[in-house]
Design goal:
By secondary structure, the protein is mainly α. It contains 22 helices and seven strands. It has a three-stranded antiparallel beta sheet with strand order 1-2-3, with no helix packed on it. β2 and β3 form a beta hairpin. It is globular.
């Protein structure tokens, strides 16, 4: 019967037996089923179900309550089973309750596998197959999963699925941009940017789509809004790839235009004119007039990943004339010594995708000469691709500098030290000498300087207090003495705007704020907080720049490295001695983690690790902040 069952959790939770919908019962029973579906094919301990369904106030007789809901689910999933017959779909084992269904019976599993296949085909150059697969996967998404279910267990599962959907959206948009569908993508990208405001790859795609649609001003405005958001909330600048796109839009780089549609091939084109520089995607039918090479155009590289050295003429070393040019040839030399190269440019539509043979080319003839007789042709704009195709050179230099600095130095990166000291001295003196009447002007000046709406609200509050005192002083008759309430109000406002205002201005200096904070934090607390911030920054890098995993060796304390990730551990990659040092576990539990990884493969989440190794939730939960569950890296390809 399990083969006929189907479940949906990407949106409203639903189930079918063949084509007949099933009534899953009350909310807690649905929550128990959701926990079992997330671990379909693996036993789930009763204690883990209790902790997931009742995270705050578990019932006193939790196992009995779970047993009651399991009995209700058995009646729904196996209506024809006799009460004395052992359950086949939802069985009780020594390790916990086991839901025996095929993995493809759950829409979340089909969704995840579809996204993985699309990314694999994307990397292999099967563009149409990748686009069809990722579109079919996104169609399974009916809404936010696990609505109505709270607690850390469901929050982690929901976050993982939402993150996977964001990757799928970026992949689909990249493939559609490669096909020249920029005009119809703008509206959808605006909605996706609003849903995922800090995903830099979506911003890159939105700017490129706007520029290709002839909306350069809106593309520049999109960059400005994103840069303001990063400075205000995180104290960092946009990545190198986005900054490079912004500069190229400013100078109207013709290489950003969409690729020309392929023209029909001639029966036997002349060798010298087979690949004229007027097109990028496919060879034209007849010799085309040579296009003048722009001073800052990007050299084009061979687009076929399988072309042999004999089939592709090697391009000479190219030196970009502009400091922000992005070399795409492997041997290109940046003009600036500290330039950070962006992702490789080439392939279909300039997106870094491998070239797929067209109708004018025989199968396997994807390689093309990199240069024509007249010089290099402009390359289309590159979109930061999803991992694994994205190489390590795409990590933004500005972001690495920002995350290498101490956490409290975010504001300090924005201006030199003497400017901050001068602003602090002048602002504090202004607040004190004016007896608080100009504190509002100082705070509003800081708000404009730092582009902070919080400081703007504080400055407005100071201004309203000063204005209220002025109104009371003007409206009071000269012959009457102020009342006790008015006098108290004047004193309170004077204390807030004068003394507290001066202290507020003083604390706006990052150095002073860090010194004051050090009075209330012990050395161990400060170290722990800094390591926590390091871990958050490292996770941010992994989410937005997957190449940081290999470049910075995040989660690999067993390797030599210069980047501090706060003590993260990639549980699927580190050797056994590192697993033997995990905190809060017994020696037997650490040994079980290593043995189970060797026997059954990598872990996917902290919940899976706890279920497979029979760890109590109290022991597994502290590891959530330390462990990384990254897929194993593919083995390096051997040079042919």
């Amino acid at each position: 019967m399990s083969e006929a069952l189907r479940f949906e959790i990407l949106g409203p939770q639903r189930a079918w037996y063949a084509d007949r919908p099933l009534d899953l019962g009350p909310g807690k029973q649905r929550a128990v089923l959701a926990v079992l579906l997330l671990a379909a094919g693996r036993p789930v301990p009763t204690g883990q179900i209790v902790d997931a369904v009742w995270p705050e106030e578990p019932p006193a007789n939790g196992p009995n309550v779970v047993q009651k809901y399991v009995a209700g689910l058995r009646r729904v999933l196996e209506p024809d089973r006799s009460p004395r017959t052992p359950a086949q779909v939802l069985a009780l084992t020594d390790a916990g309750y086991l839901l025996r269904i095929p993995p493809d019976a759950v829409d979340a599993v089909r969704f995840e596998r579809g996204v993985q296949r699309a990314r694999q085909w994307h990397a292999a150059g099967r563009i149409e197959d990748a686009l069809a697969e990722v579109t079919a996967a996104l169609e399974r998404w009916q809404g936010e999963p696990f609505t109505g279910f709270g607690g850390p267990y469901f929050d982690a599962a929901r976050h993982r699925l939402v993150e996977l959907r964001a990757v799928a959206l970026e992949t689909r948009t990249e493939l559609e941009l490669a096909g020249g569908r920029h005009g119809e993508l703008v509206g959808r990208l605006v909605e996706q940017v609003a849903e995922f405001p800090v995903r830099e790859r979506l911003r890159h795609q939105l700017m490129l789509a706007l520029h290709r649609s002839g909306r350069q001003a809106e593309a520049l405005a999109a960059y400005r809004d994103f840069a303001d958001l990063l400075r205000e909330e995180y104290g960092i600048e946009p990545g190198e790839a986005l900054q490079n796109l912004h500069r190229r839009i400013l100078r109207a780089d013709p290489a950003l235009l969409p690729p020309s549609p392929p023209a029909p091939a001639a029966p036997s084109p002349a060798p010298a004119a087979a690949y004229a520089p007027s097109t990028v995607s496919a060879p034209p039918a007849a010799p085309a007039a040579p296009t003048p090479v722009q001073p800052d155009a990007l050299p084009t590289e061979p687009t076929s990943p399988t072309a042999t050295p004999a089939a592709v003429p090697s391009a000479p070393d190219a030196v970009p004339s502009a400091p922000d040019a992005v070399p795409s040839a492997p041997d290109a030399v940046p003009s600036a010594p500290d330039a950070v190269p962006a992702p490789r440019v080439g392939g279909v539509g300039g997106t870094g995708l491998p070239h797929a043979p067209t109708a004018a080319e025989p199968e396997g003839a994807g390689a093309r000469p990199a240069l024509a007789a007249t010089g290099p042709a402009p390359a289309p704009a590159s979109i930061p691709p999803a991992a694994p195709p994205w190489d390590g050179s795409a990590i933004p230099h500005a972001l690495l500098v920002a995350m290498s600095a101490p956490p409290e130095a975010a504001a300090a990166r924005r201006s030199p030290g003497w400017v901050r000291i001068t602003a602090t001295l002048v602002g504090t003196a202004t607040a004190l000498l004016s007896f608080g009447s100009l504190t509002w002007a100082v705070i509003l000046g800081y708000a404009l300087w730092r582009r902070s709406w919080r400081l703007a609200v504080a400055g407005l509050g100071y201004f309203l207090l000063v204005l209220s005192v002025f109104v009371l002083a003007v409206s009071a008759p000269e012959s009457e003495e102020p009342t006790d309430g008015e006098t108290l109000y004047f004193v309170v406002v004077l204390g807030i705007c004068w003394l507290l205002g001066a202290v507020h201005v003083l604390l706006l200096n990052p150095t002073v704020w860090a010194a004051v904070g050090g009075l209330f934090w012990s050395g161990r607390q400060r170290t722990a907080e800094q390591r926590r911030l390091r871990r958050e920054q490292a996770r941010y890098l992994l989410h937005h720049y997957p190449a940081a995993r290999a470049e910075l060796r995040i989660g690999r304390p067993d390797l030599l490295r210069s980047y501090d990730d706060g003590g993260l551990v990639d549980v699927n990659a580190v050797p056994d001695p590192v697993l033997a040092s995990l905190p809060g576990l017994t020696a037997d539990q650490r040994r079980q983690i290593a043995v189970d990884r060797w026997l059954r493969g990598p872990y996917g989440s902290i919940e899976e690790l706890a279920a497979r190794c029979a760890l109590p939730l109290a022991a597994a939960e502290p590891l959530r902040d330390v462990l990384l569950f990254l897929p194993p890296e593919p083995p390096a390809a051997r040079p042919s």
